[in-house]
Write a structure and sequence with these properties.
This protein folds into 2 domains: 113 residues, 3-Layer(aba) Sandwich (Rossmann fold); 95 residues, Arc Repressor Mutant, subunit A, CATH 1.10.10. The chain starts with a strand and ends in a 10-residue tail after the last strand. It is elongated, with a radius of gyration of 20 Å. The strands form 4 sheets. Strands 2-1-3-6-7 form a 5-stranded parallel sheet, with helices on both faces. A 4-stranded antiparallel sheet has the order 8-9-10-11, covered by helices on one side. 38% of the residues lie in helices and 23% in strands.
């Protein structure tokens, strides 16, 4: 029988990332984007493990965890951007079984959950994301163009990975700022400045993937159309 895991986070992108990696390990994953729907589901059925951000819409995460511990020893893993030493200590004091900081490595989350649930170690190839000659390995935060390593800063990597996971789709500046920089709309120059540096790097590496500007909206990642041999002759 599959272990059932509930995952709660304000960001659907994070939930998709968690669900994809855990389903590969044969877990059943049910996701929630707010504290109210999570509380309602918990009142009907307890899963085998809960993954949650300490910051949830419609719910004080600390109070939520405290109330949960009053009636259940359900294993809880907190995955949160609130990651100061005091945040982690408070989470552990309230009864969470593990505390991971965002951004996180999905493979590490899987291994920690396997350990908590007593699952044997499962070794699998790291996830690959590809477009043209660009390849990214999110589990180990590596990228390459063709056969050459492609060196990126942490924010450049997160930005490019986010676009690559939704290649071809137009993504708004507002969404990118909220997910990558974890800020509200109003810092509109941040993606533009990063994008200038990233485009220079991609051009220098002869990358066949390209970040296209969707004017007045945001960006999308596409594969550049290569001219046929002799086309310009």
């Amino acid at each position: 029988m599959k272990h059932v895991i509930y995952a709660a986070d304000n960001e659907e992108y994070i939930l998709d990332l968690i669900r994809i990696h855990l389903e590969k390990e044969n877990y059943e994953v049910i996701t929630f984007t707010d504290g109210g729907s999570l509380a309602s589901a918990l009142s009907r059925r307890l899963p085998d493990l809960l993954i949650m951000d300490i910051v949830l819409k419609g719910q004080n995460g600390k109070e939520f965890l405290k109330s949960l511990r009053a009636y259940s020893n359900l294993p809880v893993v907190i995955v949160s951007a609130k990651c100061s030493p005091s945040d982690r200590v408070v989470g552990l004091e309230l009864g969470c079984d593990d505390y991971m900081c965002k951004p996180f490595l999905p493979r590490e989350l899987v291994l920690r959950i396997n350990r908590i649930l007593g699952r044997p170690r499962v070794y699998s190839a790291p996830e690959e994301l590809c477009l043209g000659n660009l390849k990214m390995l999110p589990d180990i935060r590596q990228a390459s163009v063709g056969d050459s390593p492609f060196r990126l800063t942490a924010q450049e990597y997160s930005f490019l990975e986010y676009l690559l996971r939704r290649k071809g789709a137009a993504i708004s500046k507002q969404e990118i700022i909220r997910v990558i920089w974890r800020q509200d709309w109003g810092q509109g120059r941040m993606p533009d400045d990063l994008l200038k540096r990233l485009r220079r790097k991609m051009a220098a590496a002869d990358c066949t993937a390209a970040v296209e500007t969707v004017w007045g909206y945001g960006y999308r990642l596409i594969e550049k159309i290569q001219p046929l041999e002799g086309e310009n002759t």
